[in-house]
């Protein structure tokens, strides 16, 4: 009985298809449903095909074709100041003050550093005193004796002559007395000695009187003049030492480095690497309007360049800025270890964007009179050979197309070719099995 009830319940749940068969959806609704289903199926197919293709894509490295075919040679190096100056002191002294900071622009003759100057000022005063003494002595000799001095010498001579005459009378008297036996021999000898002494004094004063009237000898004047010259030289040296306590900028430029501080000892002889020891230089400066690019050119490429050859300079920091350059210096000696020759390129139009030690590249142009190149530049790695034919792979969308090319001529790092356009993406690194039409994926791109 229970089974019969369950069977009747199930039959009551069945759908009455006799009624639903008579109800149909509108035509427009059925069309929309069909279109939606078709779109969903198409998306599934496209995704599946894309997944399959992506799984078969070849990873490649690329480079762009460039229109710069007038390049004879490209090289990289560093910007350097044409004249970098390490400013030293001519004297040894302690820093009293520093008037500049790194990056300051200075003018020639501007005081950069002051050293303590007390002892140098004292030496200058001492030397000045020596000059005054030597000058006075020379003037004395050149002017000769004064009238008063000549008159005094004459009076002294007259006095000595009178004394000598009196001593002569005394001598004569003593001779007579000795002859008469009145005076002793000792008294006579004393009179003789006194007279001779008086006579010698007269002779000496006569010479002094003549010299006072004639004046000093020429040799004495020259000796005094030499002493004055020596004293003046000592004064000039002392003044130069005093002036050297003011360390000035030798040229117009910009302070690149400051190596001394207030209170440090600056030496003009031997600097010390020890902490607290004397320092050899105070600042380093350079004229940033006089910049060069220092390059090491391979000996294999060196023959392509010549004196005064022009080039275009660019720096990594500002790749959109270009500067005119010209070869200013070619080293007369090669570097054996590097197999290079150093070349310096003068930057003709530097500006505030350039700094010493920046990475820089120079693209050298053909020499005057040489034909300029044509075609498009492609790197060496992008060029492939198929027998006598040369070709490149150009990335178009997600595939590569083979393009046959004709080489116009060699260039630094590649070739000038015809058959591709400037800006084309060229395959430089890829498996040897890469063929025309293969799907590719550029390395580094998602």
Characteristics:
single chain, OB fold (Dihydrolipoamide Acetyltransferase, E2P), 446 residues, conserved putative lor/sdh protein from methanococcus maripaludis s2 fold, 7 helices, six-stranded antiparallel β-barrel, Elongation Factor Tu (Ef-tu), domain 3
Characterise this structure.
By secondary structure, the protein is α+β, with helices and mostly antiparallel strands. The chain has 4 domains: 59-69 and 374-442, conserved putative lor/sdh protein from methanococcus maripaludis s2 fold (Beta Barrel); 73-82 and 288-364, Elongation Factor Tu (Ef-tu), domain 3 (Beta Barrel); 88-115 and 247-283, RNA polymerase II/Efflux pump adaptor protein, barrel-sandwich hybrid domain (OB fold (Dihydrolipoamide Acetyltransferase, E2P)), CATH 2.40.50; 123-238. The protein has 7 helices and 22 strands. It has helices spanning 2-13, 17-20, 27-55, 118-143, 147-179, 185-214, 218-243; strands at residues 58-64, 73-81, 84-88, 93-98, 105-106, 111-115, 246-248, 253-258, 265-266, 281-286, 291-298, 310-315, 323-335, 340-347, 359-364, 376-379, 384-386, 389-396, 399-411, 414-418, 425-429, 440-442. The strands form 5 sheets. The protein has a 6-stranded antiparallel β-barrel. It has a 5-stranded antiparallel β-sheet with strand order 16-20-19-18-17, with no helix packed on it. A 4-stranded antiparallel β-sheet has the order 3-10-8-5, with no helix packed on it. A hairpin with a 7-residue loop joins strand 12 (310-315) and strand 13. Helix 4 (118-143) runs antiparallel to helix 7 (218-243) and helix 5 runs antiparallel to helix 6 (185-214). The longest helix has 33 residues, at 147-179. The chain is rod-shaped. The two termini are 72 Å apart. Residues 18-23 and 51-55 have low confidence and may be disordered.
């Amino acid at each position: 009985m229970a089974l019969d009830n369950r069977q009747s319940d199930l039959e009551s749940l069945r759908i009455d298809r006799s009624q639903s068969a008579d109800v149909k959806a509108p035509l427009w609704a059925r069309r929309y449903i069909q279109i939606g289903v078709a779109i969903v199926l198409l998306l599934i197919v496209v995704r599946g095909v894309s997944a399959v293709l992506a799984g078969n894509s070849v990873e490649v490295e690329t480079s762009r074709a460039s229109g710069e075919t007038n390049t004879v040679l490209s090289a990289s190096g560093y910007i350097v100041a044409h004249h970098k100056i390490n400013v030293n002191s001519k004297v040894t002294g302690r820093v009293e003050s520093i008037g500049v900071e790194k990056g300051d622009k200075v003018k020639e003759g501007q005081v950069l550093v002051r050293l303590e100057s007390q002892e140098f000022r004292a030496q200058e005063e001492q030397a000045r005193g020596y000059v005054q003494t030597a000058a006075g002595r020379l003037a004395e000799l050149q002017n000769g004796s004064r009238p008063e001095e000549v008159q005094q010498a004459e009076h002294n001579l007259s006095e000595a002559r009178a004394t000598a005459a009196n001593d002569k009378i005394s001598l004569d008297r003593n001779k007579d007395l000795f002859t008469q036996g009145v005076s002793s021999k000792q008294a006579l000898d004393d009179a003789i000695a006194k007279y001779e002494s008086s006579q010698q004094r007269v002779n000496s004063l006569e010479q002094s009187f003549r010299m006072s009237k004639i004046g000093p000898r020429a040799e004495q004047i020259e000796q005094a003049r030499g002493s004055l010259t020596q004293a003046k030289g000592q004064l000039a040296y002392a003044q130069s030492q005093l002036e050297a306590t003011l360390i000035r900028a030798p040229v117009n430029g910009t302070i690149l480095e400051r190596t001394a501080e207030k209170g440090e000892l600056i030496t003009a002889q031997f600097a010390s690497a020890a902490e607290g020891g004397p320092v050899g230089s105070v600042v380093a400066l350079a004229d940033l309007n006089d910049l060069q690019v220092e390059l090491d050119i391979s000996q294999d490429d060196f023959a392509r360049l010549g004196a005064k050859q022009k080039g275009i300079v660019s720096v990594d920091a500002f790749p959109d800025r270009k500067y005119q350059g010209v070869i200013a210096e070619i080293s007369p000696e090669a570097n054996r270890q590097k197999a290079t020759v150093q070349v310096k390129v003068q930057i003709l139009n530097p500006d505030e964007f350039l700094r010493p030690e920046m990475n820089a590249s120079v693209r050298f142009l053909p020499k005057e009179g040489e034909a300029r190149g044509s075609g498009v530049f492609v790197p060496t790695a992008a060029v492939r050979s198929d027998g006598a034919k040369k070709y490149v792979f150009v990335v178009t969308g997600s595939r590569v197309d083979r393009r046959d090319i004709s080489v116009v001529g060699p260039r630094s790092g590649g070739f000038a070719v015809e058959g591709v356009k400037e800006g084309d993406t060229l395959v430089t690194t890829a498996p040897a099995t890469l063929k025309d039409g293969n799907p590719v994926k550029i390395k580094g791109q998602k």
